[in-house]
Specification:
The chain is globular and about 120 Å long. It has 1599 residues and is α/β, with parallel strands linked by helices.
Length: 1599
């Protein structure tokens, strides 16, 4: 299936409603002059939509994605998942190196951990030992940096001729404060005067002793610290001014070094010199790590190798047979990576090279290498100038890697100006014809072959690439010829070379990557040209300009960097209106408070960091992106305010400010450098490296340069189009004409040919470089035979319009249509299976529970696809995504990005409701802020005023929750027949704490009782209403004198205290507020209840915001509507409600976008649920359908959607729309793989894989694979025919049940029978079970019904609801069922344990007594890997058991505690029989028998609950519930008991139900399973629809 990307009417920035379509599986070059709209198309349209879809589908962070609005284009379709590999500097740090970025160091650490040898006895080898980012491995002195940083005092001085008061220090602020001095200038002067000098003497005239006083401190007098005097601070508002501390003056350098010891503060790092760590000598690791050797080397010797040397070593490595078992797979992975890196021209980089020293292009190519080896297909890679920094001779390798990505079944879009890259493309998109407003048109969109055969009249790119033969320009010679020389340069790989350069000329240093170009320039700056400020014999000033960003936030821009904004602010401050209001120039700065918008800090946007995706910038709601407050924007010059001025392009500014020479002079320099299309206020975060470099150059050129300046430029053509290179060369030539000298590092042949003098380094990189290959005038050196650069220049000159292109074969049909294959899968219980899934088809995986379905689909296929996709992302980015586990698989082929929709609802935040999760509420907020009317207020509120998650909109009483969480007295008092002081609250941990007879709270309660004449020793139910009120609600502010007779172990006594009595409810509520944010608070929820907030009536917003209405409804009422109701509400003449044309148009846009989201909810079967429903309250099936609704709204193509039992909990009629959704996703060019048992969904699948033959160790095999219709039929259920001796006895009778949508229904449930309640989703089934029956039982009174009777007919009620995810990551089945406690008791009873005085706690995993000291009982070590996902490995010390060595020595029948926990439950019977007696034995056998009867015998007690399937979790919950019953004759409520079960499992479960019925129990189940309906004595059908269309009895069948 050949796919294509379709874009229609794109209008971002300067794009002029462009429409185009282009095919996938191509190498696509997007080109055009700088500012023509390339970035707008690729980044702002394609990549931005990719980011949005990425968050919608992969991250699930709806709280972010809802704000990521669609780019401005009518249609954007056909996108694969997008990975943007740009040149940003994000993620670089001194803690990351080439080795960590490329993952080669991780592989090396693994080798050393497995095979290394150390002279240190008993040294435990593990990967963390060799990590310089972990305490186990890093050098204790430099903390793994390899260097120590020291403040260089000379760097602190800006001008030694100035006095300290005049600003001799770089750190002097405009208000005359020296940063890090910690004292005011006057106080510093007091210190200086005490030492015999003052701050008014030029720095150069001070003695070294006097200078040291300022730099290092003085102990002559004590002074007051502080940046501002107390008098100034007393005038401030909002703070309490206090006198500052008094002490001796510390000095500037000690303060800076103290900060530096805590962190590498970037502001301080400007003034440091780094020296090699004297302890580790730059190796970053401690002595223990460096003591380990492998093949005669320590690990630092390997990291000192270049990638090329590293590759050669492992390519030639020979190991013995024993070692090869370990080395073979690791070496294979190393060589695979180094091969790609060598082809990308990165062979010269050493593994220990710090990432901060890497260029943008080098970082990009390292990340590209990670993608090239991922083996994924159907990914859209976007590369920004990937050839930047590459020598022309190295382009071939880069192009080969991009071609490899394409031939593997991916699409590569590169934004580039490099001629070789464009000629190699399969498809070309040319944008122009010029920059800015003169661009934004698609000049060409088609096959590259046709592009080169056509005549181009409007395309500048076309003219350059198909134009006439190039000739070497006649440079002319400077007169007189004068030289400057570098003597014996030996930095890094330089071989003591002494190149010379022409003065008053354009000098170019060339050579392949790693040949020593940057090292030569740095050597010159550090040595030959060291005196930068004072000048040298030849040059008065030296200016070094590179392509690093001019700023890292949206608040920096061309105007601020060049100083143009200072003059603009002066001009605005001079305006009459400004002077009337007392505005100074600072009012027009978005950097300081005053005139800027404080919500966004003057940025106009709020940034969301996404690292590899770039920072996503969301337009600020408060200022609507205009950066300043309304008062500031009222000041105008010639009709424009400060925002309007910053929106001007450079060329527009030249005209607008032509009368103001200071402003126009800077703008004209920017324009002359080809930057006329940039906006003055364009955020620096959006600038390319080439644009940033030219802005820096413009800033220097606009200043009055010294008489003779040396300009050093680092690759000045980076990011420049061929036409822009010409513009740049003209500007540089003007500098030379003014008597200045230029020295450039460059690879661009067009630029090099204009040089006067070149120095070519090489011949190779790293150790093979560092020599002068050629040196001379360009006309001479172009003919040099040994110079690789000269060879490339000759090739460049020889090309003409008829030059042949490399004929690349397109991606083959076989590669596109190849199946997804995984081989040798052994994840969990899978038995080395091989399986294939057809691409673009629907496949279903079925089989009994525990047979390996989830292990295959989620644990292997999804995990492997997800892991590979995430490899291209930073670790920062990966924190937003859920890790998918580590699969065990030998090989995989044809993987595509996978999106998993599992039923486990992990959303806990009560602020997340359906409408916020889907982005619907953001549209509602915006709509109400624009269109709603209020009778009491004409003010137009911002959309944030309608947000219950912002302080501006949230109800102040409930803080935007709509409810107040309070303690429920009926839940706290669990034993009302007992006194409060003796067990009335003992059924909960919290209740036992406050009800402790020896505790302070009971002591206080007894004092309250004596004061009020109440005896709290009587049962709670016997207390008067007033007594209960005092006990629970408290006594207000009354103070009681309490004699607390405390007893804690052997410690006892009397403690007297004076205290209030808040009551038990307030005590619990206060504790909940303190703990609600963590698992402790979650554990208290069973005692709490939510009461509707009276202030906002449950609508979450401030009451004044609820005054704004549309069609008579406020936003809370609109959100409370179901999707069905809202669709009807919007379907009428919605736009006709509004008066103005503008309002009608806005209403139409809102309606379209809102109805799109509503339609997705309805199609997902959620139309009946109010969109204000908290996401965390949705069932697993509902949550999965909510995710499906997002997929319908945010469609990708070419991905694999993995669905976890999409039929779970659905009525047959609900399955039809879900089936349609699945088929729609498939029709959009996606592969569907679902785990399910529903006959309807299985019929819709193209292929079926059945796992089995049984569960656990007896499963893990494929028992059928083929077309669905060829699969043998499943097991069917034949109900047991029971001969009832009597007519059904009424067990429970309910009158007028009205919970949620139930419509006053009456129901009779027979005793000792199974009743099944069925009906479509939302018809009221769970409401009946949970709110009415269970709620009434809990509260001992009718709940949501008029009357309920019959609970007295049962011994107890057991409610088994749908399982929810465990909050504790490592909770196991054994812990859940109590088996772990039993096993711990068995081990504690062994003779060895008794001798060691080991208690059961020693055998409980994670306990203080049992846990491994290294992993603290988790069994794993987590290692951070910089850019990549954290590596989670079994703990080296405990081997993954989580237990310490002492505990692991205790065995039973040769098995330790960990091994026992890995045994299936079916194998534990022998241990129980042998080691237990009496009641413990009966208890254990009861648990094991229930597990066997529910089909869970294959599980082990050590199995983590989070790894269980939904069906297994459901049955674990059933077993737990049945274990709670002390006798039979129970009323057992079950919610979807067969959910997620294969028919075979359902049959087994029904047999258990039959036993329960025969024993006298009564079952009431919510179910749609046909076999359950067949087995039921009574079937009650609710309906006819969901929500308001449900709640009635539409069927009542008895058998």
């Amino acid at each position: 299936m050949m796919r294509e990307i379709v874009i229609e009417k794109a209008s971002e920035n300067n794009l002029k409603n462009v429409s185009l379509r282009f095919p996938h599986y191509q190498l696509i070059a997007v080109t055009g002059v700088s500012g023509s709209g390339k970035t707008s198309l690729v980044n702002d349209i394609i990549c931005a939509e990719g980011k949005r879809l990425f968050y919608e589908n992969f991250v699930g962070a709806r709280y972010v994605s809802a704000k990521l609005t669609r780019p401005r284009a009518a249609v954007i379709e056909g996108l694969f998942p997008v990975l943007s590999i740009d040149q940003n500097y994000s993620g670089r740090s001194p803690h990351s190196t080439v080795g960590t970025i490329s993952e080669l160091y991780d592989l090396l650490r693994l080798l050393f951990a497995r095979l290394g040898k150390s002279a240190i006895a008993d040294l435990t080898l593990n990967r963390s030992l060799f990590s310089f980012n972990l305490q186990d491995g890093y050098c204790p002195i430099c903390k793994g940096l390899g260097v120590q940083d020291h403040i260089d005092a000379s760097l602190l001085i800006d001008d030694p001729g100035k006095t300290i008061r005049e600003g001799a220090f770089v750190l002097t602020t405009p208000n005359n404060y020296i940063v890090y001095s910690q004292v005011t200038m006057d106080v510093l002067n007091q210190v200086c005067q005490a030492e015999g000098f003052s701050v008014d003497i030029p720095w150069v005239e001070l003695s070294s002793e006097q200078q040291n006083v300022v730099l290092y401190g003085s102990t002559k007098i004590k002074v007051l610290f502080g940046k501002h005097p107390l008098e100034s601070r007393l005038k401030w508002q909002g703070i309490t001014a206090k006198p500052r501390a008094e002490d001796y003056y510390k000095g500037i350098i000690p303060v800076m070094e103290e900060i530096l010891r805590r962190e590498r503060n970037p502001n301080i790092m400007r003034f440091t010199r780094s020296v090699t760590c004297p302890v580790c000598h730059g190796k970053r690791l401690n002595e223990r790590a460096l003591s380990v050797r492998l093949w005669g080397r320590d690990i630092s010797e390997f990291t000192a190798m270049s990638i090329k040397e590293f590759h050669n070593f492992f390519h030639e490595l020979k190991t013995d047979k024993q070692e090869s078992v370990i080395t073979e797979p690791i070496c294979e992975s190393i060589i695979k990576r180094t091969n790609i890196l060598l082809r990308l021209g990165a062979g010269h980089l050493s593994l220990n090279r710090e990432s901060l020293s890497l260029s943008r292009g080098e970082i990009q190519r390292l990340r590209l290498a990670n993608q090239a080896i991922s083996g994924l297909r159907n990914v859209l890679y976007i590369l920004d100038e990937p050839s930047a920094g590459l020598h022309p001779s190295e382009h071939r390798g880069l192009l080969d890697v991009m071609r490899l990505l394409v031939s593997s079944g991916n699409t590569v879009i590169l934004v580039d100006h490099d001629e070789q890259s464009i000629r190699e493309a399969d498809w070309i998109i040319d944008i122009g014809p010029a920059a800015g407003k003169a661009g934004g048109e698609i000049l060409y969109n088609g096959a590259a072959a046709d592009f080169f055969s056509q005549q181009h009249t409007r395309s500048i790119t076309g003219k350059y690439l198909t134009g006439n033969k190039i000739v070497v320009p006649d440079q002319g010679m400077p007169s007189p010829i004068k030289w400057f020389t570098v003597a014996m340069a030996n930095k890094n790989n330089l071989k003591n070379i002494s190149p010379r350069f022409l003065v008053n000329a354009l000098n170019v240093i060339t050579g392949v990557s790693g040949s020593g170009k940057t090292s030569l320039v740095n050597f010159m700056l550090e040595n030959t040209l060291r005196q930068k400020m004072g000048g040298t014999e030849i040059f008065k000033k030296i200016i070094h300009i590179d392509s690093s960003p001019i700023g890292r936030t949206p608040t920096s821009n061309p105007a601020t960097y060049t100083g143009l904004s200072d003059h603009v602010r002066d001009l605005l401050a001079f305006q009459e209106d400004s002077q009337k209001k007392g505005y100074k120039k600072g009012q027009f700065s978005f950097v300081v408070k005053g005139g800027r918008c404080e919500t966004c800090g003057g940025a106009g946007v709020q940034q969301i960091g996404m690292h590899f995706l770039g920072n996503v910038e969301v337009v600020c709601d408060a200022c609507n992106g205009r950066r300043f407050n309304e008062e500031t924007l009222e000041i105008k010059y010639k009709g424009l305010n400060i925002y309007d001025i910053l929106e001007l392009t450079v060329d527009e500014a030249c005209t607008f400010f032509k009368e103001h020479k200071k402003i126009s002079a800077i703008a004209e320099v920017l324009s002359a450098l080809g930057l006329g299309y940039l906006k003055l206020g364009q955020p620096s975060t959006t600038l390319s490296g080439g644009e940033a470099q030219r802005i820096k150059l413009a800033a220097e050129l606009s200043r009055s340069a010294a008489q003779h300046t040396l300009y050093i430029l680092d690759e000045p053509t980076t990011g420049l189009h061929m036409a822009d290179v010409e513009i740049l060369l003209k500007a540089l030539k003007k500098l030379i004409a003014k008597g200045h000298t230029l020295l450039c590092i460059e690879h661009d042949p067009a630029f090099i040919l204009h040089a006067d003098w070149i120095v070519d380094l090489g011949p190779g990189s790293a150790d093979e470089g560092g020599n002068i290959v050629a040196e001379g005038f360009i006309n001479e050196e172009i003919h040099h035979q040994q110079s690789v650069t000269a060879q490339e220049l000759r090739k460049y000159l020889a090309r003409d319009a008829s030059s042949s292109r490399t004929q690349n074969l397109p991606c083959s049909k076989e590669a596109i249509e190849a199946p997804i294959s995984i081989c040798g899968v052994e994840t969990n219980n899978l038995k080395n299976i091989d399986v294939s899934f057809s691409i673009d088809k629907i496949s279903a995986v079925t089989g009994v529970s525990g047979s390996g379905k989830s292990s295959l689909v989620f644990g292997t296929l999804y995990a492997e696809s997800h892991r590979r996709f995430l490899e291209g992302m930073s670790s920062y980015m990966q924190q937003f995504t859920k890790k998918a586990g580590i699969p065990i698989v030998k090989q995989s082929h044809g993987l595509v990005p996978a999106i998993s929709l599992q039923k486990k609802n992990t959303v806990k935040n009560p602020r997340s409701i359906i409408s916020t999760y889907t982005g619907l509420y953001d549209l509602y907020r915006l709509m109400f802020s624009r269109l709603a009317k209020s009778n009491s207020d004409t003010y137009r509120p911002l959309s944030t005023a309608f947000s219950f998650n912002s302080e501006e909109g949230a109800c102040p009483e409930c803080r935007g929750l709509g409810s107040i969480t309070v303690c429920d007295a009926e839940k706290l008092i669990t034993n009302p027949e007992k006194p409060l002081i003796a067990g009335a609250m003992d059924n909960s941990k919290t209740g036992r704490f406050y009800g402790d007879p020896q505790g302070q709270y009971i002591a206080t309660l007894l004092t309250v009782g004596r004061t009020h004449g109440i005896d709290f020793a009587v049962p709670y139910q016997s207390l008067t209403t007033q007594a209960k009120y005092l006990a629970m609600q408290g006594c207000g502010e009354s103070i009681f004198e309490v004699d607390w007779n405390y007893k804690r172990g052997a410690l006892e006594g009397v403690h007297k205290l004076k205290t209030t009595w808040p009551g038990f409810l307030k005590l619990v509520e206060t504790e909940y507020i303190r703990k609600h944010g963590d698992a402790r608070g979650e554990a208290m929820l069973d005692l709490m209840k939510a009461l509707q907030c009276n202030h906002c009536k449950g609508f979450r917003l401030k009451p004044e915001m609820l005054q704004y209405t549309i069609k008579g409804l406020h936003i809370g009422q609109t959100t409370a509507m179901s999707a069905d109701e809202a669709m009807e509400w919007f379907s009428g003449d919605f736009t006709g409600l509004f008066e103005t044309t503008l309002e009608k148009e806005a209403a139409g846009v809102f309606r379209t976008n809102i109805m799109e989201r509503l339609d997705a909810l309805i199609k997902s079967g959620l139309g009946y649920i109010g969109t204000d429903r908290i996401v965390g309250t949705l069932s697993g099936g509902e949550f999965q359908r909510l995710q499906l609704a997002g997929l319908v709204r945010a469609p990708l193509t070419g991905v694999t959607y993995i669905l976890d039992e999409p039929s779970f909990g659905l009525h047959h009629s609900d399955l039809i729309p879900i089936s349609d959704l699945i088929q729609k996703l498939n029709a959009n060019g996606n592969t569907i793989i679902m785990v399910d048992h529903s006959p309807l969904l299985l019929e819709k699948s193209d292929y079926l894989i059945k796992m089995g033959p049984a569960a656990g160790s007896k499963g893990g095999q494929i028992v059928f694979s083929g077309k669905t219709e060829d699969c043998p039929p499943e097991t069917t259920y034949h109900p047991v025919k029971r001969e009832y001796l009597t007519r059904p006895v009424t067990g429970l009778e309910i009158q007028k049940a009205h919970a949620n949508n139930l419509r006053n229904i009456n129901i009779t449930l027979p005793k000792e029978r199974m009743t099944v309640i069925s009906g479509v989703s939302g018809s009221g089934k769970t409401s009946l079970l949970d709110k009415v029956i269970f709620g009434s039982y809990q509260q001992h009174k009718p709940s949501f019904c008029e009357d309920i009777s019959g609970f007295e007919n049962f011994n107890s009620l057991i409610y088994i609801e749908q399982p929810t995810p465990e909050t504790r990551h490592s909770a196991t089945t054994g812990e859940k069922l109590g088996i772990s406690e039993i096993i711990a008791g068995i081990f504690a009873g062994t003779e060895t344990s008794r001798k060691l005085n080991f208690k059961p706690a020693h055998f409980i995993r994670g306990s203080r007594e049992s846990r491994c000291p290294d992993c603290e009982g988790s069994g794993v070590n987590t290692v951070s890997m910089d850019y990549f996902s954290d590596v989670i490995t079994p703990c080296e010390r405990c081997g993954g058991s989580g237990y310490n060595d002492e505990v692991m020595q205790i065995t039973i029948d040769g098995k330790d505690i960990f091994e026992i926990h890995q045994l299936p439950f079916t194998d534990l019977a022998e241990l129980v029989e042998k080691c237990l007696h009496g009641k413990p034995k009966n208890k254990a056998f009861n648990i094991l028998q229930l597990l066997e009867k529910t089909g869970l015998g294959h599980l082990s007690s050590g199995r983590v609950l989070k790894t269980l399937s939904t069906g297994e979790l459901q049955r674990i919950k059933l077993v737990t519930g049945l274990l709670a019953k002390t006798a039979d004759n129970n009323l057992i409520l079950l919610d979807e008991p067969t959910g997620g079960l294969h028919p075979t499992d359902t049959v087994q479960l029904l047999k258990l139900f039959e036993e329960l019925l025969l024993a006298g129990n009564t079952l009431v189940c919510v179910s749609h399973e046909p076999m359950m309906l067949q087995a039921a004595s009574v079937v009650i059908e609710l309906g006819p629809g969901g929500g308001k269309q449900g709640g009635m009895i539409v069927g009542y069948t008895t058998k």
